[in-house]
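Researcher: Re-running this chain for the archive, since the previous output was lost when a drive failed. Same request as before.
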Amino acid sequence: MTEIAESSRSPYKVKLVRGPFLRLEPHPEECGDDTAFLHYAEQLRSEGKLLAADLFCGAGGLSYGLESAGFRVVLSADHDREALETHRHHFGGLTLDWDLGDADRVKHVAELVKQAGITLLSGGPPCQPFSKAGRYKIRHRVREGQRDPYDERRDLWRSFLEVVRLALPPAVVMENVPDMALDREMFILRTMVHELESLGYAVEERVVDTWRYGVPQFRQRLILVALRDGRHFEWPDETPDKVTVWNAIGDLPEVEGGWRPEGGAHGWKEYTQPLTRFQKKMRKQVPSTDAGKVFDHITRPVREDDEIAFESMSTSTRYSDLPDELKRYRDDIFRDKYKRLDEDGLSRTITAHIAKDGYWYIHPRQNRTLTVREAARLQTFPDGFRFAGPPSAAFRQVGNAVPPFLGEHLGGAVMAALDEARPAGPTTQHIAETLATWFTSLSHRNLPWLTASSRWQVISAEILLDRMPPQQSRPLWPLLARWTTPTDTLTAEKELLEISRWIGREKRGEQLLAVATELVGAPHMLSDDELLPKVAGISQAVADLAILTVPVSANDDEADEADDSESEEPVLARQGVLRVAARMSGEDVHRRNRLTDGRLAVARLIGYGANARNAHLGLLELATSLCRPADPLCVECPLQKLCAGSKAEEQKQQLLY
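Model: Regenerated structure tokens:
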């Protein structure tokens, strides 16, 4: 076993962890070609096994979890050499080093999934471009001329969908970072749900806090589950106890920064025994011959000044709190560059960044950063799971992985859903069509400007009439609707100010005139979705409603050249809309996690495609007219038969009478 530096092979431009390079032999049940693989799959099916595939599999965190739930992962694909070596060692079947951006590869994988009789297709298309940090990095590089702005990894989710379309497996599980779904338009998620429903799947999606499933860290993942033939999926129950950092790693022996065992990659540190339930699970499959050993318990050397800094830090110390002589980075940019983990709390999210430096992950009691094994524990990889390559590659594989505990809970829930075969509720497409049909058929609306012909009309009404009782705002709307452009409003300045005095909103009238003046001087801002909310006096909420109501392509007076792709409708999570979503789902998304669970619940009601815009407008009107905070008019609501809240109220009334 040789020790090599990874800096010559790594995409990172910093010095990474040197250490023993671990080579892993393939699994005894590895399949070398398609023929052997299909024979292997047939044999397992004859034994009653449910088969799974894991695309973009990485080292195999999701695969390990699915196998713990009872699936057999027999087909995997990725394009990371060391992660694939790790995966091939731990799992039988066919592990492919393929670029799934290649259309021919996608068709081949889909054919293998279909021929092998795979029940569950899982995977996580690379998420770097969707994370906030990833997007910032890409934009920065583009500005600096360091890379092309197009990142083909953004389209790998389409490759995943294409495999589903061609193979039509009974179950699909996709995981990713929440930012993939929670951008302003929620474009990718809404597209995926629409396409999966069009293929006959019932789809559920949720942003999951992994600590609720026994993972000892703050880590959110977007999970999408799709079951063919309209089967209902029930999210797994949460684990009763929260696992803390010390619950997870407190039994691992002390080591100094930079410690290396004798024996290179096969060396170990002496181990005594597990103490907590979590630790016992981590050691459960360790062979008896290795009961007194812990592998991969190695980390970076610690600089002398860093060790002094670590010694002075508590769990609440920020980098900016350190004495100036101990700082090596600007503390205005890197205020949280160093973080000592709280042994009684959860770890911060273990990410691939840990391969570059471990300063975010300082051991709670020792003055060093985490070891590979400690990071793996916090990701819920058991101690018998080894990682190919040098330590930096191991750290990267750990950080990129889906926590196995999460995979196990999801796999168990999918199995239960397939066994039970309960019909799912209404599809997003059905709800959106119902809402859109209702909205377009209305003769009178509480928010009449939702049918405006120009963005300026919407902005005018929102600034002047927002939160006004409908019986007052409806008669005023025809007066405002005459002014389709900012110039029209400025021309009618005296009349506008008179109207604003009628309704006791003189300041709003003056604000509207100020906005009109700015837009007359910069008319292009009215048709630019990115610039519109930057106009002084126009909030993001008002801009979003104008963009939703009047897309650029419909606003010919404001944009000579328009392209639908440049004006995606934003998802509005206003309080009224969230109230409707909460009643529909039966969950209090209007009170908690409004930017995650709330927006996902809204997206389920509006869908994507031909009905989405009118469904969204209908949702806004519904919140104002029928689904009121108190005394909702459920009997008149187009969604009454689909609404969990309405059904609950009906059952309550039946019990009373």
